[in-house]
């Protein structure tokens, strides 16, 4: 009877916190049945096609879209924060020589940025200092990442330019050439699409860390660590590797999909923990993929992707089973068409998502409460202790 009462009164167990609501937020909302994503009430389609990534950052961090004067006042100081210390660059060079994984290199580089913070002694509860440090980290991540990639290719890093937008500047530092308008717009849209997505694993990680009043460098470093996991941030890489396998097979896309499924393989980029229909971000990137293909004359990656989607939709009927393309299904080929190395896809995810991390951090600490869940104990309860000499 006692055991039955204990079982009844125990809190419900939700592995992985699935379905558990831990906080309220005014930042983003997802309707998985309708395929809808909003940031502070704005449809993601409107923001991706009508606003710059910097405007979206302002919206997430300050609660409203800026006018021209507000945008200029927001962009200029962040652009001035783009350079990083020589020690950080030396670290990137060493990590490149050691053939470090790009996500691990970014995690280590962001952690080291704190050593070069000109105002390191702020009180942990100082929200203005948190916002300032978040702005600095957001501005410097592209510089750190581009430097690492250039070092591992045997090239010197390129200094950031304050006269270029956030997305455009990264592509410039990566390649040494200013991207054309279509490439710059596409990458800017991609950053906006990945900026926030509710209380995902990496976002929650940053909130757990900052709830202890650890500083923002610790929180963002932890977020990068969570995003590095294959179940969170790496699916777009898998999509591109899959498309390359298709290309190398010499098979028609339909034949290749049929053969892959018959052999028990899977097609990455399909299905989502939240969406039951096609991810709205995937729809936007599908359009940009077509535009990039048209502008470069290299259409096969877009053709492969759309052919695979059409077959899995019309012939296999996956959407009828609530399995539809997610954002990764198209972001992989879009990044590839932009000339971005495949193993930088997840670090680019972090370069964008840091905007959402900071928004949630600032929102949460405004009414902070230490995040401290409990586990249900299922071990023995009446062990008899035996001294060491008697065991």
TrEMBL record:
<dbReference type="InterPro" id="IPR016143">
    <property type="entry name" value="Citrate_synth-like_sm_a-sub"/>
</dbReference>
<dbReference type="Pfam" id="PF00285">
    <property type="entry name" value="Citrate_synt"/>
</dbReference>
<comment type="similarity">
    <text>Belongs to the citrate synthase family.</text>
</comment>
<dbReference type="GO" id="GO:0005829">
    <property type="term" value="C:cytosol"/>
</dbReference>
<dbReference type="InterPro" id="IPR002020">
    <property type="entry name" value="Citrate_synthase"/>
</dbReference>
<feature type="active site">
    <location>
        <position position="272"/>
    </location>
</feature>
<dbReference type="GO" id="GO:0005975">
    <property type="term" value="P:carbohydrate metabolic process"/>
</dbReference>
<dbReference type="InterPro" id="IPR024176">
    <property type="entry name" value="Citrate_synthase_bac-typ"/>
</dbReference>
<keyword id="KW-0816">Tricarboxylic acid cycle</keyword>
<comment type="pathway">
    <text>Carbohydrate metabolism; tricarboxylic acid cycle.</text>
</comment>
<dbReference type="InterPro" id="IPR054872">
    <property type="entry name" value="Cit_synth_Halo_CitZ"/>
</dbReference>
<dbReference type="InterPro" id="IPR036969">
    <property type="entry name" value="Citrate_synthase_sf"/>
</dbReference>
<feature type="active site">
    <location>
        <position position="328"/>
    </location>
</feature>
<dbReference type="InterPro" id="IPR011278">
    <property type="entry name" value="2-MeCitrate/Citrate_synth_II"/>
</dbReference>
<protein>
    <recommendedName>
        <fullName>Citrate synthase</fullName>
        <ecNumber>2.3.3.16</ecNumber>
    </recommendedName>
</protein>
<keyword id="KW-0012">Acyltransferase</keyword>
<dbReference type="GO" id="GO:0036440">
    <property type="term" value="F:citrate synthase activity"/>
</dbReference>
<dbReference type="GO" id="GO:0006099">
    <property type="term" value="P:tricarboxylic acid cycle"/>
</dbReference>
<keyword id="KW-0808">Transferase</keyword>
<dbReference type="InterPro" id="IPR016142">
    <property type="entry name" value="Citrate_synth-like_lrg_a-sub"/>
</dbReference>
């Amino acid at each position: 009877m006692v055991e039955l009462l204990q079982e009844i009164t125990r809190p419900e167990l939700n592995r992985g916190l699935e379905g558990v609501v831990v906080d309220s937020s005014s930042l983003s909302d997802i309707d998985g049945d309708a395929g809808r994503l909003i940031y502070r009430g704005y449809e993601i389609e409107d923001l991706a096609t009508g606003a710059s990534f910097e405007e979206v950052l302002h919206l997430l961090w300050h609660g409203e879209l800026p006018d021209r004067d507000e945008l200029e006042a927001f962009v200029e100081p962040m652009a001035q924060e783009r350079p990083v210390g020589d020690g950080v660059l030396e670290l990137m060079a060493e990590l490149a020589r050691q053939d470090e994984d790009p996500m691990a290199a970014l995690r280590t580089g962001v952690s080291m940025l704190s050593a070069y913070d000109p105002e390191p002694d702020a009180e942990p509860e100082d929200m203005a200092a948190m916002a300032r440090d978040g702005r600095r980290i957001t501005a410097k991540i592209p510089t750190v990442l581009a430097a690492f990639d250039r070092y591992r290719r045997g090239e010197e890093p390129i200094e950031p330019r304050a006269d270029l937008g956030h997305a455009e500047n990264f592509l410039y530092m990566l390649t040494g050439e200013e991207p054309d308008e279509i490439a710059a717009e596409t990458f800017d849209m991609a950053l906006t699409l990945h900026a926030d997505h509710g209380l995902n694993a990496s976002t929650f990680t940053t909130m757990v860390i900052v709830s202890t009043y650890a500083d923002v460098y610790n929180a963002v470093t932890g977020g990068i660590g969570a995003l590095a996991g294959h179940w969170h941030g790496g699916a777009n890489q898998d999509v591109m590797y899959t498309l390359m396998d298709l290309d190398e097979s010499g098979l028609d896309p339909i034949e290749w999909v049929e053969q892959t499924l018959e052999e028990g393989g899977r097609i990455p980029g399909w299905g989502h923990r939240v969406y039951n229909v096609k991810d709205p971000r995937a729809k936007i990137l599908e359009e940009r993929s077509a535009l990039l293909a048209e502008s470069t004359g290299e259409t096969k990656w877009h053709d492969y992707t759309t052919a695979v989607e059409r077959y899995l939709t019309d012939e296999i009927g996956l959407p009828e089973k609530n399995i539809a393309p997610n954002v990764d299904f198209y972001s992989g080929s879009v990044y590839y068409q932009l000339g971005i190395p495949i193993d930088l896809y997840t670090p680019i995810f972090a370069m964008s998502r840091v905007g959402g991390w900071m928004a949630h951090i600032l929102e949460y600490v405004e009414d902070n409460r230490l995040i401290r869940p409990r586990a249900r104990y299922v071990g023995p309860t009446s062990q008899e202790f035996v001294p060491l000499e008697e065991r």
